[in-house]
Write a structure and sequence with these properties.
4-stranded mixed beta sheet; 6-stranded mixed beta sheet; alpha/beta; about 290 residues; 2 domains
Length: about 290
Amino acid sequence: MWLSAWLRTCRENRGFHWLIFTDNVPPADAPENVRILHLSQQQLESRVSSMLRVPFVLSRGYKLVDLKPAYGELFAPELRDYDFWGYTDLDLVYGDLAGLFTAEILNSHDVLSPSDRLLVGHLTLIRNTPRLCRLYRDCPDYQQILLKDSHEGFDEKGFHRHVIQLAQQQQLRLFLKDMKQEDILLRLNGRGRFLIVWHRGHLYDVAVFRQICHFHFMESKWKQSFDVSEILPADSTFCLTPEAIRPVRSTREYCELFLSAAICCVAALPWQLRRAVRNFRNLIRSK
């Protein structure tokens, strides 16, 4: 599947560490900054029950999404030596995280997410302090939400609203900036034909000549026709399209990539024009 691409992009972000808690067989080629820690479902349920002080049963895997804002407290022993903790997904690839979440930005903020409107569940960073690790507890009805069998979207709804409110009250320093891209948003915005290129640790949305923090292929992965090639640790370039994740290794493949980039840029021209007109109208209205 796409885990090899995910691991390849983690490998280049040496200043960041990923902790994966699982009872599955770990990948053999995980880089040093990706730690696989064994945790059974029973052990997880025991941790959550102890944290919430009520019995917790994991009814479905997707329910783990609601627990994301509590990871700082839930996995406090493993996070003890880190300045920040966060949560992310596996159906994405990363660009140059340190180049976008710079030391200056990290030092001056408490909660960070690469979106201009939302704490996204697929990548949010939180300063590792006791107060911020327990921030989720200040959300209304958090315990009832976490104990429900159904997925409630707590990370992008209740927790997001609470953090926004605290930021508006200047009780925490929030960093929200649009630095990511998602296939579903591209389709909804009329850019269904996209080309994302990863090259030596940097990730680019080619049609708009933009470097991005990560690309989330949440929709593409469900297509039966989505063709995922294995990305090797030695690969320096690979690309993502609506149809595939493919390495770029040979001269012929690089030539095909340049041709695809040209086609993608031309296809994006109507979208670029609409965006320019919309921005111009907004500028006129603001004056």
